[in-house]
Design brief:
This protein is an alpha/beta fold. Helices cover 43% and strands 13% of the residues. It contains seven helices and five strands. The protein has a five-stranded parallel sheet with strand order 2-1-3-4-5.
């Protein structure tokens, strides 16, 4: 994997330096995925907002979450012009909250990046990204993960992070 020149990363506009990772966060696999991608993106100097961590601010004394405050916090990030939404669109249908976040980001800021790691998908035979998203002309990254060993995990996440950085540099408005 060819590294991105650090001077190029430094020239990325401020509005793309903070990334909000949208995607499922309701089970251990999704949470670990988010944490690993955050770690890989942080290597490039990005501030990465994870809703699963932000939600901790809204825990009640009984351990439940104040969901109204969680939702308001999520939207405050998604609607922020200095925050880039990067969304996990894996699965037959994307997670519904992620869909709302991507649509909001497009409506407010005009862009979002979507990615898929499912090895069954490719741009030529895409069935999982709803056609309504194609109308938005999004940046969709296909980065299939073929993990057969725990030792391959970091390389796969670093590869995905690099693809996200390359998309920020080459495809988003300056």
């Amino acid at each position: 994997m060819k590294p991105v020149d650090i001077d190029t990363v430094r020239k990325i506009p401020l509005k793309y330096k903070t990334i909000y990772l949208a995607g499922g966060l309701f089970n251990a696999g999704e949470q670990v995925h988010n944490l690993l991608l955050r770690l890989s993106l942080s290597k490039y100097g990005f501030k990465v907002i994870l809703p699963q961590i932000e939600a901790e601010k809204f825990k009640r004394d009984d351990g439940t979450l104040d969901m109204q405050k969680v939702v308001e916090d999520c939207y405050s990030h998604v609607e922020d012009p200095l925050t880039l939404v990067v969304a996990n669109m894996d699965g037959v249908d994307a997670e519904s909250g992620t869909v709302a976040e991507v649509a909001t980001a497009h409506a407010v800021n005009g862009y979002a990046i979507m990615y898929r790691t499912d090895f069954r998908t490719c741009p030529e035979h895409e069935a999982g990204v709803n056609a309504m998203f194609r109308y938005l002309k999004p940046s969709i990254i296909y980065c299939p993960f073929h993990l057969s060993s725990i030792y391959e995990v970091e390389d796969n996440y670093d590869k995905l992070a690099l693809r996200i950085v390359e998309t920020i540099i080459t495809k988003l408005p300056k």
